[in-house]
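#help-structures
NK: newbie question, is this the right format to request a structure? protein is ATP-dependent DNA helicase II subunit 1
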Amino acid sequence: MGPTEVNPKIENDLLFGNFDDSGERVMNESDYKDHRDALLFAIDVSRSMTQLSDKLGGVSACELALKSIFDCISSRIIENSYNLTGIILYGVKTCNQCRVLMPLSIPDSSAIKNLRHFLQDAELYHEAFQYNKTKSPALIADLLFLANQQFNSFASKIPSRRLVLITDNDSPCTEDEPKGLLYAKTRAKDLYHLGVKVEPLFLLHEFNNESFDSSRFYDDLIYDTMLETELADFDGLDQLEIKAKSKTQPLQACNLSSEILSRRTIRRPLATNTIVLNAQINIGVQIYSLYRPQVASRATWIYAQGEVAKTVDHDTRIVVKTTGKDVLPEDVRRTYRFGEDFVKFTPKQLSKFRYFGEPTIRILGFKPASWLKFDDNVRPNYFIFPTDKQFLGSTRGFSALYQSLMRKDKIAIAYVITQKNSTPFYAALVPSPETDLSNPANPDTPAGLFLIPIPFADDRRRVPCIPADQQTVAPDSLVGIMRNIISKLKMSKGYEPYRYNNPALQLHYRALQAVALDDEYSDLYIEDKTMPKYNSIENRVGTLIGDFDHAVKDHLHISSDSTEAKNGLENEQSSGQKRLADDGTPITKEVKKRKNTRPEFSMKEVWRLYQSHIIHTYTNDQLQKFISRLNLKKSSLKGTVKELLVDTLVTYLDTLSSLDDLETAFGESGGEVNISEAAS
């Protein structure tokens, strides 16, 4: 999870404490630096890693890894300019078979340009990726020692340090070379004590027979910190079973790019909290945010008149406009409107109003799982997982709570304050079963408890109920045709968000990268994958859409004829005493169709017909008066008079969001109008 964006309103920090208007704590620059990340990539250069593969698009695994790392670095420097990144190649033709391609540092534009030039220059690339046919037994130990030097020299004060190991060789040291494994274990322990987390990417492709057995070498090198600390007390599970599940599974080489990009940000918790069951039982947990809207990077003022551009340091002051004197923060009051008056508060008073207690997740009771409705999910959910850093045995207590909820099909209702000075809310603790990731159809849902905020009474809105006699119900024939259309347009795997990037965000990133790397800015193009595929839609349901259009027109024509006949019959019957012929029988006369068959006109009627897509049932005179009252310009499309009037009106109504906007527009144009007068 990436860091939260810094609030640009510096005045809030200056006057009202470090909180925004909603009462949430605002992240500042120190928060960014506290969560900096040092990411070091190590690529294994071997015969199988440098061979071209058709499954990888005609490139080698090394080249694919380096291109993916280039994209990852470009994204990291835009999202967070404090992160460090480095690249090491091991197994190459050098004295110690290791080469630092990019030192561990904050990449600047020159480093990105050099890496891109390295990828584009074929001669330079092949020279660097010449593998050593004779591997040293201490190759992995030398790599880990070099990584240790990089972290000690350039990232000694950074809390998050990660080494991503990319290889397809599950046995870099043979059984005849036991010292190689011993040396590697020693260096791996040094990294572990330094706080460096090793994240291996074991590749499967045709050149290693689609097999990788991590137990042959790497299982003894990768230390799982969560296994040794947080899961040590896990009750009811076999420790060996936990250890086996904690090891990294190999991945297909074609998925290498997405795996590298997924490591561009650190997975840090949003907050640390406590589940309170009673006064004696507290369970320490960490709160994670699974989804966070990604926004454009914040702009920073720079001074560009010197030889080197420098960041401008902000200094915000409040002065009296008439005298120019500075105003101290304690002399400023914030006011809120209360009727005709203004209520003033000091910053200290505001801080007290926003304090509801210490962060807590207090269990209030339990409910059946069916009690939670789908429409209760109104805010982003959180995921909580145990940690023993606050209270020893938290993992054991969390496991007991989780297993009890799963076994009894229950959920817990809790009073939640996620962080200090944040607004409290009620939430449901919903257990999530662990899914079988070997089946691609299963969602990647972690096993644990989800924190789902429950709406208050003030959050719920009463949806207006439409009477049954005013509801427009489609006939079964139209419903059947539309059902076929929807079934043919339905995605087989549903909506997969990982396949669709935000085009506006990607264009912003591409523009920043183009300016930083002196690329052509005018030729930027981002493919919007969310655009409908019109040719595919036409091939699948083009005929059905035509049938549906004809069926709708036929249904509206029949409905209009029946309505007119009914209105004429009612008028004939309500005209009083019928004239009788000489033989005493009523004199029948032909029903005269009225020019205006609509009842008294109203804004609600127009809006309802517009939403039902039957606005064309009004006469030309009615539509003409409506359009002239709004001073609308007639459509320039070719067609009949009725089609032009309908297109003009519908185009205008498409710009409105609600009935209130339509009534406001009529009020500005001179008040309500009775269009039925146009027919007389």
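mod (FA): yep, format's fine, and the tokens are attached above. The domain at 475-571 is CATH 1.10.1600.10 (Ku70; Chain: A; domain 4).
NK: thank you!
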